[in-house]
């Protein structure tokens, strides 16, 4: 069964574990995390993919830095 890929706002997929704790539970996988933004990208990776390897980034400038450091033969 293929799960429909839908982008959620961060607030929609996390719930507080309890009122005394800053950690939140991911409603998609059940994992309890401290950094919701980092975990969000586990489920919804970035849209900037390297054409030479499997690296994917959420920002175009990070992809550019990757290409310059990992693929210097490109002369980007």
UniProtKB/TrEMBL annotation:
Residues 48-71 form the C2H2-type domain. InterPro entries: Znf_C2H2_sf, Znf_C2H2_type. This is C2H2-type domain-containing protein. GO terms for molecular function: zinc ion binding. It comes from Anopheles dirus. Keywords: Metal-binding, Zinc, Zinc-finger.
